[in-house]
Amino acid sequence: MPLGNTADRYGTVAQTLHWATFLLLLGSFGLGLWMVELSLSPQKLKLISYHKWIGVTVFLLALVRLAWRLYSPPPPLPASVPAWQQRAASAVHGLIYGLLLAVPVTGWLGSSAKGIPTVYLGLIRLPDLIGKDPELAEQLFRLHWVLNKTLLVAVSVHVAAALKHHLVDRDEVLARMLPARLSRR
């Protein structure tokens, strides 16, 4: 399997970045939903740190993914896909990429405004993006929540469309993002 994308398939790099991002999002969503229900404790603080680590990693992966798309453009959708679906796919991909950047940044901004440092992997203290402002922190965390829900909807639409192509249309749209050994029918 080539590292770069080809005319009809995503390469190893794009596939690895895609599936790593997906797994991190699953973990982050689950962790975020679980930790918000907990009362303040050392356990909750540890979970918040893990959530931040995942968020920073997703942000970095999104930057790498965007750079990789410039270096190795994705394969075009098959000609059998109607133009309106191609436009919708492009819009959903753009929304997902924007949210992969915006969601972590709003979390980081909220933490900065709350006066709680973000220390990546417990080793690298990231700079506060804004000064301490508890009222602004609450607004930013609400925005973070709304953007997370929007990302969840966008990813769900993306998954549903991929499954529709695979199960209903029986085309190769989903198979292009699967490792070659999984995409054979």
Automatic annotation (TrEMBL):
Domain Cytochrome b561 bacterial/Ni-hydrogenase, residue spans: 9-179
Entry keyword annotation includes Nucleus: no
Coiled-coil regions listed in the entry: none
Classification of source organism: Bacteria, Pseudomonadati, Pseudomonadota, Hydrogenophilia, Hydrogenophilia incertae sedis
GO MF annotations, alphabetized: electron transfer activity; heme binding; metal ion binding
Name of the protein in question: Cytochrome b
PANTHER family: CYTOCHROME B561, CYTOCHROME B561 HOMOLOG 2
Any one of the GO CC terms: plasma membrane
TM annotation in the entry: 20-41, 53-71, 91-110
Superkingdom of origin organism: Bacteria
Membrane topology: Multi-pass membrane protein
Entry keywords, A to Z: Cell membrane, Electron transport, Heme, Iron, Membrane, Metal-binding, Transmembrane, Transmembrane helix, Transport
Cofactor(s) the protein requires to work: heme b
GO BP terms in the entry: respiratory electron transport chain
Chief location category: membrane
Subcellular location: Cell membrane
Sequence similarity: Belongs to the cytochrome b561 family.
UniProt cross-references to InterPro entries, sorted A to Z: Cyt_b561_bac/Ni-Hgenase, Cytochrome_b561_oxidase, Di-haem_cyt_TM
